[in-house]
Amino acid sequence: MIIFVMRHGEAEPYKQDDQSRHLTKFGITQSEHAAKWMAKQLKNQTALRQVDLTFVSPYVRTLETLGAVEPFLSIQKHIKTSEVTPIGNANMVQDLIDGELLNDSTIQCLLVISHMPLVSLLSDVVCSGFNARIFDTADVLMIDYDATRSKGSQLAFYQSLT
User: Fold this and answer.
1) Of the four listed, 41, 65, 74, 103, which is most buried by Cβ atoms within 10 Å?
2) What is the dihedral of CA 122, 127, 129, 132, to 10 degrees?
């Protein structure tokens, strides 16, 4: 199965209410380009045509990233969860992923839209040899994930426009 781990697009500068930060116009463009890349990867590498499930942070910038991605990817279902906020626990998110895969064996592609440092820490937990690489805004890691082993390997890494 395929897991995409994506950091949200570029957001407006930090403010006291971090949860309400919006994407910039550039952040929307970054997210759209990342979505086109993911769609191409699904078609070319796996012949999949949809994202079966997306976990998305409830922060404004991640929800806006999801909105920018949806026109380019067929997303069947999304779950807004505080588990994938910047302070989320990577091991707990892996448990969340594994639980969903156990409950629904039809899931072939999953997308996580989150924040630093969680995207990096989660990638390190679910992807052998990733070594907590830093994600710039709208970067995406594509993982071939084996749910029976709870471990995957890197297929590709998309570096966003800067």
Assistant:
1) 65
2) -20
